[in-house]
Amino acid sequence: MNVPVTLRERRPDGQVRKRTLSVSVDESHDTVADVLQKLSSQCGIPDSRLQIVLGGCRLQAETSVQQLQLGPSTALLALVAETRDESIRAPAVDRVEQSGRRGFSSFFVYCKSCKGVNAAKLRVHCSKCDSTSVQVQREPERWSHVLRSHRIRAECYECADGEEKEGGGEEREGAGDGGAAVWARFVFKCATCSEPSAALQHLRLPYRAAAAAAAATVDAAATVSGSTAAAAACCICLLPLESDSTPPSPIVDLRCGHPLCLQCFAALVKSGLKSSQFSLHPLFGYTIGCPWPNCKALVKDPHHFALAGKENYSEYKSLAVEAFIASDAIKCPHCTIAFIWEAPEQPDQPPRPPHPRPLYAIALAVSQKGVSSTPDEEEPRRPIACPHCAKQFCGVCRREPCTCEDEEAANRVLFEATTRACPRCEARTERTGGCAHMHCAACGADWCFVCVATWTEECQWNHWFA
């Protein structure tokens, strides 16, 4: 296959020269070193001065091309080091080697195009210009680093070139071979069709299969056999999660020590939907827990429920929306869109805009700050603006025009008609049944509910059952 390579070289005068070349590679046999040699023969630059960057990291020469999971739209970035700069041969972050040790296809996604679970490849983009000509400054260490924004810093070479053009071609301070400082944006793509897909953080290969893949990746001399590690069993069907006779399949691991096979997880979701085992969690939305007794682990990402099939996933989303609305969501009286309203943290601050995500997205992945919040009671007349239609309405009665004053007037009339004031302390008391003899809970006075005076013998004879 032919792979496009963008060659980036900084000249002695500080100007950056970029060329796009096409290199023919053999995925089955070539390594990065072979690609460097082919690139060197085309550009006339010694391969010792070339370094290839993919996925935000510099690649090692011994890495096989097959490990890179190149797709039809994949483009490589080649950097040219100055003769005196030997540090470029040592990668700043060795993502490929580390990924190989835990199985390069250790990520899995649910691909809508393929309609199923596939191995994933992780790509890195610039959060500013969306270019893939970036290099991360440190290796992501946990899922939050790749699933959430503004977690990992990177250097973008496209943004650096743009800054130099705006600056009249002047070299940036400390530029050298580096790029502009930006935030990295990680994208998971299906390894089969290269479509961006939802990452499934609870899916992994069984440990024996992952160890065998790692051994094959790093060309280890020893092979991993069934005797090296005991095969784990599904916590529902109790069958081994891997065998020597069948290819390894991903399993569901909630990090609680109770793994599940995909078939049992799908059955768990179906059963949970029918028996109402799902609940609305303030951090993870409408979700279900581990089936093991007394285990508190939860499914943290609702995309995993797509493993139960299209119909069950549609049912799940409908139930999630109903649970969200029933919790305390605000429903716009104009367009009937439900959303979360975040009250200001300080009384003197303006109100935050409502959460811009659509209802189903909020229902599936509730904000970390909680399921919802109500308007500030100290300022009950603060209007709320719908994020969908931008129309405002009252944050208390949630109507437009506001009916709070009409309701308060009606409540005031009802309150006056059904309650009496204690003749000693004027605390309002409602009579719900029994005799007219009232005992004030506030001051301890005994008084008559009919004549609203201190209880006397006359009240006992004339007003006892009035």
UniProtKB/TrEMBL annotation:
EC numbers: 2.3.2.31
S-adenosyl-L-methionine in keyword set: no
Record keywords: Metal-binding, Phosphoprotein, Repeat, Transferase, Ubl conjugation pathway, Zinc, Zinc-finger
Annotated ranges, domain Ubiquitin-like: 3-85
Any GO BP annotation: protein ubiquitination
Residue ranges of every copy of the RING-type domain listed in the record: 230-466
Residue intervals passing through the bilayer: none
Catalytic activity: [E2 ubiquitin-conjugating enzyme]-S-ubiquitinyl-L-cysteine + [acceptor protein]-L-lysine = [E2 ubiquitin-conjugating enzyme]-L-cysteine + [acceptor protein]-N(6)-ubiquitinyl-L-lysine
InterPro entries tied to this protein: E3_UB_ligase_RBR (IPR031127), Parkin (IPR003977), Parkin-like_IBR (IPR054694), Parkin_Znf-RING (IPR041565), TRIAD_supradom (IPR044066), Ubiquitin-like_dom (IPR000626), Znf-RING_14 (IPR041170)
Name of the featured protein: RBR-type E3 ubiquitin transferase
GO MF: ubiquitin protein ligase activity; zinc ion binding
Cited SUPFAM superfamilies: RING/U-box
